[in-house]
Amino acid sequence: MSIPPELKSYREIFSSELHENILAYWMQYGVEKDGKGFYGAVNLANEPVLSANKTSVLNARILWTFAAAAKHSPGKGYEEMAHKAYRVVTEDFADREHGGFYLELDSGNRVANDIKHTYAQAFVMYALSRYYEFNPAEAVMQGIKDFFYFLDKKAKDPDHPGYLESFTRNWESYEENRMADNNEPKSMNTHLHVLEAYAAVFKVWKDDHVELRLRELLELFLHQIIREDGHLGIFFSEDFTETENSRGICSFGHDIEASWLIWEAAEILGDISLLERTRPLILKMADAVLREGVDKDGGLVLESTRHGSHVRTNKHWWLQAENLVGFMNAYQLTGDLHYWETVKLAWEFIDAYVIDHKGGEWFTKVNRLGIPYLEEPEDDPSPYYRNDWKIDPWKCPYHNGRAMIELIDRISNLI
User: Mind spelling out the 3-state secondary structure of 32-63?
Assistant: First the structure.
């Protein structure tokens, strides 16, 4: 395998971005000054939006990020952030009566939305597992064990493959809050993050039932979610047939993110035959994204619709982060320097256009030319997050922070 001589210098670049920009920003602006947790939103002037609700997704992602950072780089103050986030998630968001975690609290920590969405529950499990790696206390492990069996009982579809999307507070099936454009019964996105969470659980707890569920999810991706062309299906019926409205959509950010998360899950299982079956599929996924989604400047566009005839060319922050890790993973698997050159080009785009070098952190979304959206365009609003906020219920340190940690570690392993 050819090792580029500039890898070490790129490791320093990614380390600087992690510590001096991303994590420093969240420590300075994300923590409540008159509270015990984190703001639900911060605007582009780095002022808290006190009217914004707090979400379990954002707080779980903060927990994951700072637990990972505390383990990766001890002694920089990340430990306190991780402990704070753990308290917020396990105390403020936990439903002591019915189990699981609320979707939203208001700024005063009162329940604002008591829906139990499998996507949000999975992020809590993912974060708790990472926190245990940093702080391997028995109470943390017991919480992981209890929550895994609870969620598996509540969310697993008893009659069909996969997991149900959303529930009422007391865990009755709820069909009006699915992660789907047309309210389809099941989504790739939810299953990708359940896979991510269960892989993290199995990494710290080698339980037979966790292994069974993780294998089932991997097989579901390999046989039913990944299409023949290497893109992911998006929305599915109860029996996991892709719905008609979904078949013309390609979500490039999810494709490239899934390419390395699926490989990571297979590696955690450690099954050689499964790895052999997985490898060509995830490389096909990376190649499909490189062929159709990576712009000539290295930026990754959002998606294509109408079977590829219409491309949405805006470049959202989280796609760019996953672009880096996905192609770094492809380079490590193959030794093909073309993938590494794609990583370099992707970083050049991020550094030039996506990072807010004046205000800190990353802009939420830039257009194809790299010009950031600083307000919500009426004709093209973001589906969940807001362009005029730097932190919001979905804009988090997890994608870009995780990408920097992954790149630092992957380069270290190579050199």
Answer: CCCCCCECCCEECCCCECCCCCEEHHHHHHHH
- 264, 293 contact by CB (below 8 A): no
Element (H, E) at 250: strand 250-251
Residue among 85, 144, 93 nearest 114 (CA): 93
Cβ-contact 340, 318 below 8 angstroms: no
Query: What burial letters (b/e) apply to 211-242, b meaning 16+ CB within 10 Å?
Result: bebbbebbebbbebbbbeebbbbbbbeeebeb
Query: Residue 289 contacts by C-beta under 8 Å, 6 or more apart in sequence?
Result: 230, 252, 255, 256, 259, 300, 323, 326
pLDDT confidence of residue 31: 98
- pTM confidence score: 0.96
- pLDDT of residue 384 exceeding 90: no
Distance CA 305, CA 248 (A): 5
**45 alpha-carbon distance from chain centroid:** 25
Q: What is the pLDDT of residues 140-180, one digit of tens each?
A: 999 999 999 999 999 999 999 999 999 999 999 887 766 66
Question: Running DSSP on this structure, what letter comes out for residue 107?
Answer: T
User: b or e along 301-310 (b: 16 or more beta carbons within 10 Å of the residue's beta carbon)?
Assistant: bbbbeeeeee
